[in-house]
Structure formats: C-alpha cells, structure tokens
Design brief:
Elements: H1 4-10, E1 19-20, H2 26-36, E2 48-54, H3 57-72, H4 78-85, E3 93-99, H5 109-129, E4 133-137, H6 145-150, E5 158-168, H7 180-183
Antiparallel strand pairs: 1-5, 2-3, 3-5, 4-5
The protein binds flavin mononucleotide.
Length: 194
C-alpha cells in the first residue's frame, strides 16, 4: 500500500483501456464504497449514491448506451455502435457516482453537489491506495436522458462521474500541473500596509 502523501503527490489517471484485469474483489468493492461514503456532507443529507457495473452487467449497460446512440445517430456505422457498447466494459469495474442534490430549506444545492464530487474523488484515491488505477470520466452518455432513465436515475439525479477502476497496464506519465503562484494567493488585508 503506497504511503498516503506519496499517493496524493503522484496520483494520475489512466485511460479506461489502460485499466486491465484483475479488478477489485467483492470485499475491496465494499471497502471502496465505504470510503467513498465517508465524505463531508453538510446536513447529513447523503446527497449521492453509487451504481456498480461489473462483469456482464457492463455490456448490458452498453446496450442502454447503444440504444441512445442509435437515436442520436441513426446512420452510425456498426463499428461505432460496437465502440459505444463497450463504453462501460473497458475497465474491469466501473462505479457511477450519482448526485442526488436538490433544493433544501437550509443546505445549498451547490454544497450537496460538491459532496458528490468529494465522494468521487475519495473513490479514485481509495482505488489507488489499494494498488489499482482509476479514472473519473463522464462522456456524452452521462448527460443523455434516455441513458439516465434506463440506468434508473430519477429526474433530479445526475451522474457526477463513472469511475473506472482496474490494474494499470503501465505506469502513467505525469502531466504539467499549475504553478502554485498562479492558483494560490495569500490574503493581505487588501494590500494596505499603512
Ligand atoms: C467531473 C469530471 C468529469 C470528467 N470527464 C472526463 C471525460 O469524460 N473524459 C476525459 O478524458 N476526462 C474526463 N475528466 C478528466 C479526468 O478525470 C482526468 O482528471 C484527466 O484525464 C487528467 O488526468 P489526471 O487525473 O491524471 O490529472 C473528468 C474529470 C472530472 C472532474
């Protein structure tokens, strides 16, 4: 298990196709979900839930994606359709993080959405901590109402991400990160030095 700080300093996403078998075991999936549900949650609203896609169910979900794809692109070529069918079957395990944020008398919806993002990121980090690779993607089908209906999302629910998890086929190369002086400032009393 990598050191926590080292993991946080070096984590990188891999493409879904770069995440191979084996994927997490049933016990590891339970651990991932337990960790993902341990995030800050103003008002304890539990404004998120998870959908696990593994094994043959990934291609069954692919059929749902294909049905929506065919409506959007009726003239699509068979090879494109097959690519769509495999969308959720590229990695051994995909976990959808579903935001259940909604209007609330006290807790802003924005904060509920942020909590779903925190759950997704915890899922990514926990997968890495277990020695797997992970990537957080949405792609077009996360925003397609037909797909959302077929996956059982209610009208107000949204996909925060499809977290793809598997064994990395190679070590990822890093990408440039923003220099701290471009993204962080220190508040200095409005610059008044008198
Ligand atoms: C909400 C959300 C949705 C994303 N959706 C996609 C996506 O559909 N396709 C994609 O290539 N990357 C997507 N990304 C970006 C990747 O998760 C990843 O951050 C990016 O490839 C950079 O790699 P890194 O995590 O190693 O910095 C998304 C990120 C977030 C936060």
């Amino acid at each position: 298990m990598p050191d926590a700080l080292e993991l946080l300093k070096t984590r990188r996403s891999l493409k879904p196709v770069e995440l191979a078998e084996p994927g997490p075991s049933a016990a590891e999936i339970d651990m991932l979900l337990t960790i993902a549900s341990r995030v800050p949650d103003h008002g304890k609203l539990i404004p998120w839930r998870f959908i696990v896609f593994e094994g043959a169910a990934r291609l069954a979900a692919g059929d749902v994606i294909v049905a929506a794809f065919r409506v959007k692109y009726p003239q699509s070529k068979p090879e494109h359709v097959e690519t769509e069918r495999k969308r959720l079957a590229r990695a051994p395990l995909v976990i959808a993080v579903v935001s259940r944020a909604g209007a609330h008398v006290k807790i802003p919806e924005w904060e509920q959405v942020l909590s779903a993002g925190a759950a997704a990121m915890s899922l990514v980090l926990a997968a890495h901590a277990l020695g797997y690779g992970a990537t957080w993607i949405t792609e077009w089908y996360a925003y397609d109402r037909r797909v959302l209906d077929a996956l059982g999302l209610k009208e107000h629910e949204r996909i925060a991400g499809f977290i793809h998890i598997g064994t990395p086929v190679h070590a990822p190369e890093d990408r440039p990160r923003p220099p701290l002086n471009e993204i962080a400032t220190r508040f200095t009393n409005g610059g008044d030095s008198s």
